[in-house]
Amino acid sequence: MNTFLSITLDLLEGFGTTCLIFALTLALALPLGLVVAFGSMSRFRLLRLPVRTLVWIIRGTPLMLQLIAIFYGPSLLFGIGGFDRLTAVIVAFVINYACYFSEIYRGGIEGVPAGQREAAQVLGLTKRQTFFYVILPQVIKRITAPMSNEVMTLVKDTSLARIISVAEIIMVSQEYTRQGLIWPLFYTGAFYLLFIGILTLLFRFLEKKLAYIKV
Amino acid sequence: MDFLHVEGFRKKFYNTEVLKGIDFSLQKGEILAIIGASGSGKTTLLRCLNFLETPDEGKVYLDGELLSDAKERYPEGTLREKRKKFGLVFQNFNLFPHYRAIKNVSLASDLAAKERAKEFRREQKRRYREEGVRFAGRLARRDGAKFREEALKESARRAEELLETVGLGDKKQSYPGELSGGQQQRVAIARALALDPEVLCFDEPTSALDPELTGEVLRVIRALKGRTMIIVTHEMKFAREVADKVLFMADGAVEEEGTPEEIFVHARSEKLRAFLKRENSGD
């Protein structure tokens, strides 16, 4: 029997997968993005050029295509078994989002006035200390707004996982569409809205917390 | 023997020669004022002294010892030690906007304290091990934590004292964004003093300030008399009043140097006379 309750529970399970993709991607792509940002700002061409090319390719092709490439690529190219479905989704999402995040980081880091680094240098701080105590806190302040945009896009991009049959919430709802029941598909919108609503509040809180920094 | 001796500073940016061989020396406790039109190389000279730029040629002697030679490449750690001999107060303050005034002043010594505590912990651990004490690691951690706490307390106390010196004892919990330009620059001076540099440099410390705020900053600098200082400034009256020695720069070279009297009253070169005339009419 398809009751409202049973469908809600069913969708919740799919939503769990959505949240999992979201959380893992965020947790891994945030630090990886910083690494990519350093690569694309490197003084060494041999590092900078390949990293920038990677960013260009990842930002220049659809995430859907990247998902398919990462899931089917290994077996098509080398005839070996690749990742399992969920892992493929996480790998594709992390690489994709790390590249987008890296550009946000880069903008944030380059936006910190040169005088800040010089002041730290004159005070005898090491490069490490300068980055973690002087630059990074200001970067975080500068990038909260563009990051919130990107993070919200990620929430909705998770729906692409169904391309390789990972049962996130939209895919679950489409089971019902096939049975002639269309409203569960629209019902999923409520889940996304709720999620985004919470994120909006979180980012607003963060911005308020960082308001004391006048950059 | 001169306390500070700079010899043959040259610096080129692309094809422009910004410093064309600068020499000067300074005694301990003296104040040197550097004046000159914009683009004459004053700021670059300060930046070279503070290792923010590397001159193409030139040597710096401090307290009778060779501190740096442009021909040498120093490893990062050595360079940092050399840097700390000089302090610099910037034109635009460059305070750290995410730290309160007191933390701006104490940051460098806080970080140094943490490093020393780490070092101390390692030493203690080695000592406990040698003595065959049980729980050497845990004991060493306890000692390290105590050391660190003491050192940080001392650093904060000193920062507070310095803020008092520049008249901002009551603003120690304020963020830079909450302070006026004059107050920010005073915090910046306290920050530069925190490491007790041998030579304190000022790069046009009042140029970014509203005229009514320059007074408080100049008062603070005046009160530092007795320290070895180099002040790049457009405030002619101030330079004349506090300096023991004045350097007039033009086109990347020292055009004239002497006592304030010699520079401001008995200017010899045509360039200096023209410069002073312009400055006076501008006031």
Care to describe what's here?
Chain A is mainly alpha-helical. Chain A has a single domain (4-209), classed as MetI-like (MetI-like fold). In chain A, 80% of the residues lie in helices and 0% in strands. Chain A has eight helices and no strands. In chain A, helix 2 crosses helix 4 (85-111), helix 3 (63-78) packs across helix 4 (85-111) and helix 7 packs antiparallel against helix 8. Chain A is flat, with a radius of gyration of 21 Å. The model of chain A has no long low-confidence stretch (mean pLDDT 90). With 283 residues, chain B is an alpha/beta fold. Chain B folds into two domains: 4-98 and 175-282, Rossmann fold (3-Layer(aba) Sandwich), CATH 3.40.50; 99-174, no CATH class. Helices cover 45% and strands 22% of the residues of chain B. Chain B has helices at residues 42-49, 76-83, 101-131, 136-165, 181-193, 211-222, 236-242, 260-265, 270-282; strands spanning 4-13, 16-26, 31-35, 57-62, 65-69, 86-89, 199-203, 229-232, 245-250, 253-258. Chain B has a six-stranded mixed beta sheet with strand order 6-7-8-3-9-10, sandwiched between helices. Chain B has a four-stranded antiparallel beta sheet with strand order 2-1-4-5, with helices on one face. Classes of the chains: A mainly alpha (215), B alpha/beta (283).
